[in-house]
Amino acid sequence: MRRPLPSLWSLAGIGLAGGAFSALFGVGGGLIVVPLLILLAGFETRRATGTSLAAIGLTAAFGAATFSALGEVEWVEAAVVGVPAMAGTLAGTWAQQRVSSRLLTLLFAVFLLAVAVRLVVG
Q1: What is the count of structural domains for the chain?
Q2: Taking the model in full, what pTM does it have?
């Protein structure tokens, strides 16, 4: 049975946090929105990931336009990163559909821990 959707205020708060972290540190979707959708909104991992990616499209478009207006975007480099990232998205989506939600959550937690350790240790 599918859980009822969380309140609009809860989702808006998650979006606000994701957008703020995205603008501050260049992260928001995977590192902020996905865990919050899982922990606070009760989404399962696949639904949180898909929802986050859809939200990132909106966030990225607005952020890119804002940073572009400030002259802070290297468009060639963005394309060199972004075009292969689209292929990576297809490969990642394919792989995600073949792994259990529990394992996905565990792998994501391990990834977040490894990033945190790397940032602290340097």
Answers
A1: 1
A2: 0.77
